Amino acid sequence: MNRARLTVLAVLGTLALGALFIWTTRADAPVPQAAGSVNGGAAQGVGALGRVEPASRVRKLGQPGGLSVTRVERMFVTEGDLVTQGQLLAELSDAAQKDAAVAQASADLLEARAALQKSRAAGRPSEIAAQRARIASLKARDDMSRLDAERAEALVPRGAGARADAERKRAAAIWASADRAEAEAQLETLSRSRPEDLAVAEARVQSAEATLARARADAALSRITAPIAGTILKVYARAGDLIGTDGLLELADLDRMDVTADVYETDLPRLRPGAAAEVIVPGEPVRFPATVREIGWLVRRTTQAGTDPVAAVDARTVEVRLTLSEAGRQALRHRINMQVQVAIAP
Fold it and tell me: What is the homologous superfamily of the domain 46-57+255-344 according to CATH?
């Protein structure tokens, strides 16, 4: 009995020690926090590297694609000039040749339109009047010839006239009638336009109009105009130079300045349009206010090179554009593509 009682007591003691161990382990375990809470639930901002850019982006202009002529004939702007949209910036060396083609096409179109007008009007009033007078004269001659032929035919049986003379007069009457019919047909032609003549004339006008439009388009390709209003930032080719791989010039609108920040994809849930931000410029004691305007659609590898040797160089980021305040625009309008730091408030 004593041995059995001791065995039971030993088992009970082991169970009690196990329960005590389990209770102690659960008591020491940390309490899980709510999802998204950081540092006691306080929201955090987003930091990123960025670069200064005009809101219009920098527009690089060059020769139109597909053209073999790449020599600049005349240059009308220099660096720092303010230009308006559509303003002529430069002409290529084949501009004069293209202008001559436009002038020739314009003359051909005027000729085709004049021919169409002539076809529609048929004959001029003076031509119609002259033709009617000719018809009246031929009608009188036709009537006289027919009477002479009838009298000659009547005298043949009586022996008063020769048969040969009668035949000549009959032939003259036939010719006079034919001349009259021809003149009347010509009057009909002068009075009305034939549909086939009008169709040909209209087709020639349309062909001339298409030729002129093509010539004007070719001439426009020999002139480079400003796609937007802005400031000439850099000129790469001048009069007499060939346009190289850098293009002709760079243009941008400096009235609105942005900062393009490369934000890590994991920080996107903490961004929203309209969020306040600050732009930190190296060497500047002042922080410039900014506002988140656009959040990009594409995730790509980062394009900003940091100084941290252990940073992830292949990190994936999204472009976020921030609009600079007026003070920031004035301070950074001459620092396009400068690298800055961005702090976006939560």
Answer: Efflux pump adaptor protein, beta barrel domain (2.40.30.170)
CB atoms under 10 Å from CB of 173, counted, come to 21
Model pLDDT for residues 268-306, shown as the tens digit of each residue: 999 999 999 999 998 888 999 999 999 999 998 765 555
Q: Does domain 59-92+218-251 have CATH number 2.60.40.1930?
A: no
**pTM for the structure as a whole:** 0.63
Name the β-bridge partners of 342: 48, 279
In 3-state terms, what secondary structure has residue 14?
A: helix
Residue 83: enclosing H or E segment and its boundaries? strand 82-83
Phi and psi at 316, nearest 5°, equal -105, 130
For residue 254, how many other CB atoms are within 10 A of its CB? 18
Q: Using CA atoms, how far apart are residues 258 and 57, in angstroms rounded to an integer?
A: 9
CA distances from 10 to 3, 109, 305 (A): 11, 119, 69
7, two tokens: 């065995």
CB-neighbour burial class of residue 262 (10 A; exposed 0-12, middle 13-18, buried 19+): buried
